[in-house]
Amino acid sequence: MEQLYDELYKVVLVGDPGVGKTNLLATFLANEAVNEQGISRSFSSVRKATIGVEFATAIVRHPNGKRIKAQIWDTAGQERYRAITSSHYRRASGALLVFDVTNHETFNNAQEHWLKELKAAASLSSTLTSCIMLVGNKVDLESSHAIQDANYVDQELHESTATTLGLMHQRASAKTCHNVRRAFEDLVIAVYNADKSKQQRTDVVPVIQLESTSKSAAPNNSKSTETKCC
């Protein structure tokens, strides 16, 4: 059977309920199809909260030509489901840490709860801690009025916080498809690069030079057993 992908990685979506995690995933999977009003065909303003955990798969093409299969897990944000989602973090290679740019509390929770939970669950061999993207969703709601609101998280604060925490960052809109594909693809490619870099470091075997203990062979003093010719 023809191989459909070269590598497989697990990516998780985390963040408070209502920040748009499921809509981001739906927009990405719909290949950013929009209607006449420029709104994602998969977007829903009344989407029900995800119960438990759901996942979907997508293929991302790396610049080197490799086909990377991403298993993208959409985890519920409600308190009562956190025990369920934490069991899935351990095998994750990357994460989209999502907040709502019009809700500062979701931005704080991304740092104070979700990021800590991700890092606590990451294994030493995982690329997870180095492949987390802080995504500010709902930029379609940005307006002169919204920007003046104390709850608004501006781009400068978003980017400076991500840089301080060592995270990737992106601002997006699940509704208009703005930067949705870029966010997912950039993260998956970063996971692939981090994994290959880690493998290369692991494959390097230090050369240990051993002192030679071999001795020269002693001369053979045994008598010849050849029969002399008469």
Poorly predicted regions: 40-47
Number of helices: 6
User: What proportion of the residues form beta strands (DSSP E)?
Assistant: 15-25%
CATH first level: Alpha Beta
Gross morphology: globular
Distance between the termini: 75 Å
- SSE arrangement, N to C: EHEEHEHEHHEH
State the assembly state of the protein chains: single chain
Radius of gyration: 27 Å
Which architecture does the CATH hierarchy give at level 2? 3-Layer(aba) Sandwich
Residue share in helix = 25-40%
- CATH fold-level assignment: Rossmann fold
- Biggest sheet record: 6 strands, mixed
CATH superfamily caption: P-loop containing nucleotide triphosphate hydrolases
Q: How many beta-strand runs?
A: 6
Task: List the strand order in the largest sheet.
Answer: 2-3-1-4-5-6
InterPro entries: P-loop_NTPase, Rab_GTPases_membrane_traffic, Small_GTP-bd, Small_GTPase
GO molecular function: GTP binding; GTPase activity
Family: Belongs to the small GTPase superfamily. Rab family.
Pfam families: Ras
